[in-house]
Write a structure and sequence with these properties.
- This protein is α+β, with helices and mostly antiparallel strands.
- Helices cover about 30% and strands about 30% of the residues.
- The chain is built from two helices and three strands, in the order ααβββ.
- It has a three-stranded antiparallel β-sheet, with no helix packed on it.
- A hairpin with a 2-residue loop joins β2 and β3.
- It starts with a helix and ends in a 13-residue tail after the last strand.
- The mean pLDDT is about 75.
C-alpha cells in the first residue's frame, strides 16, 4: 500500500513538472525567429520591399469589392493622376491595395455662337 502511494506521488510530481514546463514554454517564445521576422517585415523596411505587383493578376471574381478611397490628385496640363486605395474582402480577410491611375482630359474648346450672314 505504501509502495503504491509512493508511485502515485512520483507520477503526479512528474506530471506537474511537465505541465509547468509546457506553461512556461507557451509564454516565452523563441526570440530569434520573431526578431528575424520583425526586422524583415517592419514599417522601417517597407520601402525596401519589392513593389512589383499588379491588380490584373488578382482574380476579382474571388473577392468582394468593399470600396475605394481617393487619397490625392495631381493635375498637369491635360492629365490627372489619381492616387487611391481599393479594399477587397474574401471571407474574414481584407486586402487593401494602393491604386494609381491617370485620366487624360481632352482640351475643351468653348463653343461660339454661329455667325449670321
Amino acid at each position: 500500500m505504501i509502495r503504491q502511494t509512493k508511485h502515485i506521488k512520483l507520477l503526479f510530481s512528474a506530471y506537474l513538472i511537465m505541465m509547468i514546463n509546457i506553461a512556461l514554454a507557451s509564454f516565452t517564445g523563441s526570440g530569434s525567429n520573431d526578431d528575424h521576422l520583425n526586422s524583415k517585415f517592419s514599417l522601417k523596411n517597407l520601402n525596401k520591399l519589392p513593389k512589383n505587383y499588379s491588380l490584373s493578376s488578382i482574380k476579382l471574381s474571388q473577392f468582394q469589392l468593399k470600396g475605394s478611397q481617393d487619397l490625392s490628385q495631381q493635375r498637369t496640363d491635360n492629365v490627372i493622376t489619381i492616387h487611391s486605395i481599393i479594399r477587397l474582402e474574401r471571407g474574414n480577410t481584407t486586402f487593401v491595395y494602393p491604386y494609381k491611375y491617370k485620366v487624360q482630359v481632352p482640351k475643351f474648346k468653348t463653343p461660339t455662337p454661329p455667325s449670321f450672314h
